[in-house]
Amino acid sequence: MGSTSAESHGDAGVGRRDLIKRSAALGLAAVPATGFLSACASGGGGDDSSDDSTKGTTSKDNPFGAAKGSKLDVVIFKGGYGDDYAKAWEADFQKKLGITSTHTGTQEITGKLQPRFNAGNPPDIVDDSGAQQIKVDVLYKNGQLLDLAEVLDAPAIDDPSKKVRDLIIPGTLDAGLQGGKVVALNYIYTVWGLWYSGKLFKEKGWEEPKTWDDFLAVCQDAKKQGIGGLAHQGKYPYYINVAIMDLIAKKGGLDAMKAIDNLDPKAFVGSDAAQAGVEAIYEVVEKGLLMPGTNGLTHTESQTRWNQYKAAFITCGSWLENEQLKQTPADFDMKFMPMPLLPDSALPFEAIRAGSGEPFIIPAKAKNLPGAKEFMRRMLSKEWSTLFAKEANSLTILKDGVDPSVKLRPGTQSTVEASKAAGDDTFRYLYTEWYSEMGAAIEAASNELMAKRIQPKEWLKRAQAAVDKQAKDPASKKNHRD
Asked: Percent of the chain at pLDDT above 70?
């Protein structure tokens, strides 16, 4: 969800899953910084609560003094990316530093970890993602997260003359910002948009639609042939908001997107782009072009029916292919595409929502802070980035971070190509990370919209009310994008 989808990531709000543009070997050019924040992390973090057994001698190769013989408590969200990549990291960590790990792979992040945070006994490093993610803004407000500036300013593994942050794709740290500090490392570079089956499109003679009218035409032709037009993960309206919010950003440009993140009094009500975006999605509902039953399905149920050729399109982030590996026919030919354009859109068709997801955090009260910091530093090495790509079929936020020998699956490869085509025309909302309560209110309104219980005008009113409520919180003034 970057990761917040129900299963992956990232990005609750993306929170759920994410994916990168990186390497020359993968045909990628320089990565976009357009529309991203320029704020850097400020110094300072949580209290160093490590006990003496976790403090070793600092050196050029061991800047945090991670102690040989100490233990690291690692918790990984086991969703679309699995957790084999983390086990590979942990094995290498033990081999190189003599630090053993306690590994937990789970989808029940809140259930397993909230009691531990409450008791002041959190793990050392956490992949805090999925439907049961503990919201990063909530942890930050409670003072439970380490400021990651020290890790980002440490020497990079691959080039110690540079800081870790210098080797990261521009803009990808922004999703982890709270109050101007990077407190979560969103590790996977993700794109969000529409997905379809290359096989189905070839069989039906459909072209990838570049305009919204062309998109509706494909959906209408699908309906005539007994196939749903658009599927969405109805029980998790995060996903249909991918479509609504993409349409708003592409119609109104970066200013329309920033108005929402910056809690503008006309972010929704009074915004022509917002009105056009929500009306476009409602047209799909009104014309009966949704896959039948999709409103009542979970993410995996809806995605599996799409894999069974019961719908032409589905909205999702780039964790989709990994999440559906077992359900996807071998010849399905999964393809990603940008959101089609409404008339007079400010951004081009190629523009995509792109950025980072799958937030990794270090709790302020971690018992082995030196070990956790060193583990995160190594996550941002080519060796560990390549291990991740091999095990999880995804790219990371490290520039050129994956060895050219790694072969990506068709859907993931299509996201790489889409990222290359987008160039600097990328955008990324941050309200999902900054304001989880506001995000949930907008999702609730979308749920009502898709079920035809409210009309677009009421959706705009409810979304604006969520913005206005958030704007009254004095803490929100610390988050702003220029």
From this structure: 89
DSSP 3-state of 10: strand
β strands within 48-128, DSSP E: 71-77, 100-106, 125-127
Positive/negative CA dihedral, 191, 336, 231, 426: positive
H-assigned helices in 119-224: 136-141, 149-152, 198-204, 212-224
Q: Which amino acid is at 235?
A: K
What end-to-end distance do the CA atoms of the chain give, in Å? 25
* DSSP β-ladder status, 185-197 and 311-317: antiparallel
Q: Is the pLDDT of residue 472 over 90?
A: yes
Contact 2, 18 (CB under 8 A): yes
φ and ψ at 332, to 5 degrees? -65, -35
Buried b (16+ CB within 10 A) or exposed e, 408-434: beebbbbbbebbeebbebbbbbbbbbb
Q: Which two tokens stand for residue 218?
A: 């494909």
In the block, residue with structure tokens 């997905």: 195
274, 267 Cβ separation under 8 angstroms: yes
Which amino acid is located at 352 in the chain?
I
Cα 125 to chain centroid, rounded: 18
Q: What single DSSP character describes residue 120?
A: T
How far apart CA 139 and CA 136 sit, in angstroms, is 5
Residue 283 DSSP symbol? H
CB contact at 8 A, 29 and 421: no
Distance CA 309, CA 313 (A): 9
The predicted structure's pLDDT at residue 89? 98
Handedness of CA 460, 466, 472, 473 (dihedral sign): negative
Which residues in 347-379 are b (16+ Cβ under 10 Å) and which e? bebbbbbbbbbbbbbbbbbbbbbbbbbbbbbbb
pTM of the model: 0.81
Instruction: Label residue 55 by pLDDT band (50, 70, 90).
Output: confident
Asked if residue 294 lies in contact with residue 302, where contact means CB atoms within 8 angstroms, the answer is yes
- Which among 393, 394, 396 is positioned nearest to 385, based on CA atoms? 396
Computed on alpha carbons and rounded to an integer, the radius of gyration of the chain in Å comes to 21
Which tokens sit at 428? 């990324």
- CA 208, distance to chain mean position in Å, is 24
Query: H/E/C letters for each residue in 342-366?
Result: CCCCCCCCCCEEEEEEEEEECECCC
Instruction: Give kind and range of the element (H or E) at residue 49.
Output: none
Ramachandran sector of residue 378 (left: φ over 0; alpha: ψ -120 to 50; beta: rest): alpha
Distance in angstroms (rounded) separating the CA atoms of residues 201 and 192: 20
The pLDDT value recorded for residue 13 is 35
481 residue type, one letter: R
